[in-house]
Design a protein that fits this description.
Layout (H helix, E strand, L loop, with lengths): L4 H6 L3 E5 L1 H4 L1 H13 L3 E2 L8 H10 L6 H18 L5 E6 L5 H7 L10 E7 L2 H14 L4 E6 L2 H4 L8 E6 L9 H13 L6 E7 L4 H7 L6 H17 L8 E8 L4 E8 L3 E3 L8 E3 L4 E8 L3 H10 L3 E7 L5 E7 L1
Parallel strand pairs: 1-5, 2-12, 3-4, 3-6, 4-5, 6-7
Antiparallel strand pairs: 7-14, 8-9, 9-12, 10-11, 13-14
Helix pairs in contact: 4-11, 5-6
């Protein structure tokens, strides 16, 4: 199905909404500026995902070095029949939905007679990602109801409408972008948005050999570097900064003490950043970094502690033979 945004929005079984508008462009710009004025400097990782960033991340997921996506998909293929075969009368809410390829694996197991009772709700910061997944899945499952939501799901999960019981999917190890306090706060918010009978499927990356981790975030083709540098272009679009990506280099390393991969952009020369949202220029010294992302790695113990502290009951922890990745099935 070759649809543009207008075609999607007028399809009988499809609705598109944008909650980012409620935040306002000034609020988003100020979030970037505040990060650049902090010490150390940072840009929140959600700003990776403009249209170009979303495409670059999809390319990352296909790289040989990047194990998380293919490993998680292998787990989903093995557990999908057990969880989705009898699913009906359910809102499937996917936070950080991306290209919809993981949901395809899961929805294939829903009985055809039950598909009309299912509403799939992809929620993503990238409008292009939401529209892409809607096109993809509406073609694969014509009887499925679809509600595409562009939103900051970290702060706007409470705005997602509810019509029936929920299965919330938060896959791709996106939880790892949050520090422990943020992860606790976020999951507590998700828990408040759930009722008795609701379920959660959550993907997390596990602690493993540092060489495997370092290769995954420093690929030989430089796609991750391009993805990281693109956040500067997004800053230029939203906060009207004057970054030149040629002034920075990609840096990714494993912080063993914090159990996380860190991504940074390191200035290769002194640069002066201006914006209409700034009273004074921001000077970034040669060798200074902008912190763009954390990716925390979990153990079974840390998973159990997090879910216990946020009042979820773990039904099952599924993993791969190497124990590199886990998908946690929880219930209320």
């Amino acid at each position: 199905m070759n649809q543009n945004s207008s075609d999607i929005s007028t399809h009988a079984k499809i609705e598109l909404v944008n909650y980012l508008d409620r935040l306002g462009k000034t609020d988003l710009a100020q979030e970037i500026i505040s990060g650049l004025q902090s010490n150390p400097k940072r840009i929140p990782s959600k700003f990776f995902y403009d249209a170009k960033g979303s495409l670059l991340f999809e390319e990352i997921t296909r790289l040989d070095e990047y194990y998380p996506t293919r490993t998680e998909k292998s787990i989903l293929k093995s557990i999908a029949p057990n969880i989705f075969k009898s699913l009906k009368d359910t809102d499937i809410v996917e936070l950080g939905s991306g290209d919809g390829s993981k949901m395809l694996i899961l929805l294939k197991e829903v009985l055809e007679d039950n598909q009309e009772s299912i509403t799939y709700i992809p929620v993503d910061f990238s409008q292009s990602a939401v529209e892409g997944s809607i096109r993809f899945l509406s073609s694969a499952f014509p009887s499925l109801n679809l509600l595409g939501i562009t939103a900051d799901f970290l702060s706007q999960v409470h705005l997602i409408p509810r019509n029936q019981k929920r299965l919330i999917c938060f896959l791709g190890s996106t939880l790892g972008n949050l520090n422990p306090d943020e992860a606790h706060k976020f999951l507590s918010g998700v828990r408040k948005a759930m009722d008795d009978g609701d379920e959660l499927l959550l993907g997390v990356d596990m602690v493993k050999n540092r060489n495997v981790l370092n290769r995954a975030y420093n690929d030989s083709k430089g796609v991750t570097a391009a993805f990281n540098l693109n956040i500067l272009n997004v800053s230029n679009q939203i906060a009207k900064t004057n970054f030149n990506s040629n002034d920075f280099e990609h840096l990714a390393l494993f912080n063993e003490e914090e159990s996380r991969i860190e991504m940074h952009l390191e200035a290769i020369r002194e640069v002066e950043i201006d914006s209409p949202y700034l009273l004074n220029s921001i000077v970034i010294q040669k060798g200074e970094t902008i912190h763009t992302e954390n990716s925390y790695k979990y153990t079974v113990e840390s998973i159990k502690n997090l879910f216990q502290s946020t009042n979820f009951r773990i039904k099952e922890i599924y993993t791969d033979p190497n124990k590199w990745f886990s998908v946690i099935h929880t219930i209320i």
